[in-house]
Amino acid sequence: MLIHCLKSYSFNLFDLSSKPLHQPSIFPSILNCDLKGRESQTLVCDIHSVLLRTHSFFPYFMLVAFEGGSILRAFILLSSCPILWFLSYELKLKVMIFITFCGLKIKDMEMIARVVLPKFYMENLNLMAYEVLVSAKCRVFFTSVPKVMVEGFLKEYSNGDDVIATELQSVGCYFTGLISKHGLVVKHSAIMDYFGDKKPDLGIGSTCVNDHHFISCCKPCQLENMPQ
Fold this sequence. Notes:
globular; Rossmann fold; 7 strands
């Protein structure tokens, strides 16, 4: 029932993401992206607000909390909404990760990532971004959301070559609810660490300032913004 409720609200009710600073785009729109001649190129993008239409990852955390934990865990996460509204994006993400993953079995998360989440990711897929994505030879994803929630989908359904995402700590067969010592992935820093002096050919991002920093790490004139 919870899943049907999340679907019926089209993910708008739980949009708890920070309101990012937007600025006029200095990059071409993805609507003008030529899909030809990219067979040898490397593309980078995020799943959050780019490959997926939704601007909040909260519903996906709810799915994990409910399917992998219990209705009580999902209720606690839902009850945290009033607090989450007043936190920064980084703190929101850390709180949601802790509530969702603390004490969660790794094997349960693996099942959810393989069976449950892909269905909802596919229903919210941004087709414009996906068409550009599949036109490239190499696809590398950078995101601050937990790797265990997105890696399977990005590699199996989106033909991702690599996924750079936030790693979670675990003890034995359980998650601790804490992120690794490397912290949350910061996209523009991660892309520079990953590629070094060799810039990727194409980047897809939103019009928020952070994504401007991210796609500016790509080669000039090969940068695309998602229409808002």
